[in-house]
Amino acid sequence: MQNLDIISVNIWQIVISLANLVILFLILKRFLFEPVKKIVAERQNEIDTQYRKAERAKREADEIKADWEKQIATAEARADEIINEAVERADRRNEVMLYESREKADQIIRKGKAEVERDRREARETIKKEIVDVSQAISEQIIGREINMEDHRDLIDSAIDRIGE
Q1: What is the CA radius of gyration of the chain?
Q2: Nearest CA to 130 among 161, 151, 112, 153?
């Protein structure tokens, strides 16, 4: 039986062990589990706050990015508009300069033609006078008398007109 005393179960020992276990559990709960639980909850709150801040910062960054993209698109559109306006102004200026150049060239050509025509008339008149003078001198020598200047001019003018045609 002595061997049985080693294995025997003592009810008071079980009750005391259970009471020790409950007391130990209550002490651990009070001094360990609750502070750890509180620390974990605080840490969870900090993490949640950080996530909310990060999400808010991301939204703000997205809004700022969208604003910048909008401003860039507006600036690019304005730059394209300015370039197109400058090209149109240059084209109009080019057309005006081309028109003015053509007008000046036409004016120079008209002026040149008028000068040529005037010089031609002057040369024709000069040649007529010289021919009249030469032919009068030749006629006087051939005929031997002086021909009326008016008759002579009429003869020469009609001859020159026939030759000029």
Answers
A1: 63
A2: 153
Rounded to whole angstroms, the Cα distance separating 42 from 126 reads: 122
Report the alpha-carbon angle 37-38-41, nearest 5.
85
Helices 34-143/149-164 angle, 10° precision: 130
Would you give the distance in Å from CA 163 to the centre of its chain? 69
pTM of the prediction? 0.43
Enumerate residues 6+ apart whose C-beta is below 8 A from 128.
156, 157, 160
Please state, in angstroms and rounded to a whole number, the distance separating the CA atoms of residues 124 and 44: 117
Q: Among candidates 134, 131, 136, 132, which has minimal Cα distance to 147?
A: 136
Cβ 155 vs Cβ 131: under 8 Å: no
CA end-to-end distance (rounded Å), the chain: 172
Round to whole Å and give the CA distance between 89 and 153: 64
| Low-confidence residues of the chain: pLDDT under 70 | 1-7, 136-147, 151, 164-165
| Structure-token pair, residue 155 | 């003869």
